Amino acid sequence: MAFFSKLKDRLFKSSSKLEEGLEAIVEDGGEVEAEAPAVQEATPEAPAEAPAAVSAPTFEAPAEAPKPTPASSPAPESQTVPAPKPGLLSRLTGQGRSAPVVKRELDDDMLEQLEELLIASDMGVDTALRVTANIAEGRMGRRVSTPEIKGLLAGEVSRIMETVARPMPLYPSKPQVVLIVGVNGAGKTTTIGKLASQFQAAGKSVVIAAGDTFRAAAVEQLQVWGDRAGVPVLTAPEGSDPASLAFDAMTKAEADGADLLMIDTAGRLQNRQDLMEELAKIVRVIRKKDPEAPHNTLLVLDATTGQNAINQVETFQKLADVSGLVMTKLDGTAKGGILVSLADKFGLPIHAIGVGEQIDDLQPFDPEEFATALIGVEQS
Ligand SMILES: Nc1nc2c(ncn2[C@@H]2O[C@H](COP(=O)(O)OP(=O)(O)OP(=O)(O)O)[C@@H](O)[C@H]2O)c(=O)[nH]1
Ligand SMILES: [Mg+2]
To answer: 125: exposed, middle or buried (C-beta count within 10 Å: 0-12, 13-18, 19+)?
Structure first.
């Protein structure tokens, strides 16, 4: 509800692009039909069911885990995403009276236009082809309206995303080591702050290691997040070895009996060899203390980078044993379709999505909610 509307409002750029494209496709070659009943189909098959509660934490928490704090902080200046246009949405979803409905026969031309639209929305060629093929199956020659197409599309997207929507698993290991990797500016440090706050709120004790020792500013930034979340941040002098910091942090986390140790890392991809060695060394060192560590290697991806996210996953899978994804900056991006492409291509779990810069702007990933927000299907 609150979370849903937040995601929907913030994903508006994607949904408006897809929505307008779908409307244009149906109108191109479509004809007005003066009947309404078929519009009832507007609501997508899967998303029509009541959406699951979306206020769960972004990790597989024990039952007593409280939710992340509700949105209490004032909207940051950066939230300049325009509000949705309810008029257009309700018109498209055929809410209300028996207004004339435009329908178009589902033929090869229409399918091709659909494919192009999905590719343009960053879904990737393979995924776009598969999705349109599924929509076409058994429906060729049928007359469809925009709301019907939107519903079918939302159903397909939701189905793809269901397989990857999984909260970050919590293990009994103490500390559970969570290594955070990703390119420069993807949102690693911010995500650590948000996660730490959620873990803390769930009664877990957390230690953060500021493994990006190359920039003093990076350490300070993490300290600010640590203060906000009420979590200790272990730092080392600028330029010192991140692996030895990770080792010290592991020692402290063990001594403190901490539940979780989150290790921030530098994101320079310019020199892949260095980064690979650095990550490998961090892993080697913490394994001296716990051969199972890191228990989670989270790759943080910036959703606004579009198709480049595919290369990032491929690269980081070679550098580290990536166990799950966090997608940041889904607020206000027109490239939300990239998640569908990633899910379809790699099948890596998506643990959480970032929808803003504030501490409570990290949500669990809900496939139906995402699909309806992406495509602009209105939910009642
Ligand atoms: N709008 C929005 N901004 C975000 C989100 N997550 C992170 N950011 C912003 O993205 C910028 C970079 O985030 P960082 O957390 O510093 O990224 P990083 O991966 O640690 O970057 P490096 O340390 O330089 O590698 C900051 O300005 C964050 O506020 C999000 O979900 N939405
Ligand atoms: Mg950082």
So the answer is: exposed
Find the ligand nearest to 266 CA. 1
In CATH, what number is assigned to the domain containing residue 186? 3.40.50.300
Please tell me the predicted confidence (pLDDT) of residue 15.
Answer: 60
Structure tokens belonging to residue 359: 């501490």
Per-residue confidence at 115, pLDDT binned at 50, 70, 90? very high
Q: Is the CB of 6 under 6 A from ligand 1?
A: no
**Within this chain, do residues 158 and 185 fall inside the same structural domain, yes or no?**
no
- The helix (H) or strand (E) run that includes residue 326 is strand 324-328
Q: What is the pTM of this model?
A: 0.82
Question: Ligand 2 centroid vs 67 CA: distance in angstroms?
Answer: 25
Residue 313 has pLDDT above 60, yes or no: yes
**Do 194 and 239 have their domain in common?**
yes
Looking at this protein, which amino acid is placed at residue 353? I
Give the pLDDT of residue 35: 56
Structural domain count, the chain: 2
pLDDT number for residue 98? 59
Span from the CA of 204 to the centroid of ligand 2 (angstroms): 23
- Among the candidates 102, 128, 162, a domain finishes at 162
